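re: that chain from earlier
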Amino acid sequence: MSHDSVTRREKLGFGMGDAANNMSFAAVVMYLSYFYTNIYGISPAAVGTIFIAMRAIDAITDPIMGMIADRTYSRWGRFRPYLLWFPLPLTVSCILMFTTPDWGNTAKVAYAAGTYGVMSLLYTAVNIPYCSLGNVITDNNQERVSCQSYRFVMVGVVYIFLTTCVLPLTQLIGQGDDAMGFQITMALVSVVALGMFMFCFANVRERIVPSYEQRRSFVASLAGVARNRQWLIILAITFFEALQFFMRQGATIYYAQYVMGLGTALISVFMTTGVVASILGTATSGFYTQWMQKKWVFFYSSLLLAAFSVALYFATGTNAVFVGVLFFILNYMHGIGAPISWAMMSDADDYGEWQSGEKNTGTTIAGNLFFLKMGLAASGGITGYLLSLGGYQADAAQQGEAAIFVIVLLLTLIPALVNLLLAAAIWAFGVDDRLVVRIRHDMDAESAVTEPDGDGEPAYDSTNR
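^ sequence. v structure.
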């Protein structure tokens, strides 16, 4: 185990890794559905089927990738090599995904499904090892929160870029040819992401090495992880946090347009305000954890999220400035909790190793990412179903009272309820900072006396490059 501090350059490198991930993932979330339906000419039903099918495949590939990463041995460590091996194929797949061969409808659907499927698998091969890095860079409590803060600040910067620059670049480059504009713009974005991945690989180190090399089967590893009660609670935390966040994100544009009556330019300002607030919350998260255990910082920020969500419900119809202030506070509170939730994932992983003697970082992270995707899928399903139930009309200049009521609920009271469930899950999480110190003390003592067995692989030296 290691209590060494992490340099700012390394934290920047770690943050670059997720910035690169979101250059791919966030671009897909924001633009791919629109690209498929409005530019490539695929039916919405076919697009929905492609997306749902890939999430079902994730349920299989995510844990497999996690277990493969756990069993990787190289001079660069367990997880870093995937930031060297797979970003280039991922870059190529992203470019192909936004390429539009002029084929028949069936061939177009097959091409879209194939390129999206390949991109998703390559993204899994990069993202799960990357997220696992946060568990092995350091075991220092404050440094873990700090690393995650750098990560989410840089992700916020990427989101600002994607929301403000991609469509103007597409129009500028395409000069009326949207297909070419998207292809070249996404190619540029993907190449920038490739450089970010390389910076992350070159500057991040794996310091935490398992106390012994494991040789358990995949099934046995899954069973061992499933016995970690704290990890199961983290899965609930991950799901609820993703559900409330993506639901609020999805409802924001509807709220700004139909409830506040904002035009296109002001809608962009309103949404960017939320991103900036989230970045500020993330950047200051470490300050609060210096004075209070991170579990309780996360708990109280979730309660405040619920409270201000309720306040926003009752503020509906008041002036835009007051609503904007409440929206800013909501996103700031979310930003505080985001890096802490990932630091708590590391604590749950350490708890599992302390409990069972087996380190399953990749497997536990894969489970967390799958539940995050489940939260994303559930938020989209709930939003779509409730908008339909409220009689939402996509081409209407004004929405009916029922649709407006649903939009307000999706931004306020429903996320408030989910945040209360999130707070309850955080309360139930049993690994506080004092237990983390005890776990590390026990594992330090064990690693000092434990010798690797004769048939194990030699432990790698993660300082080698």
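Residues 282 and 338 are 7 Å apart (CA to CA).
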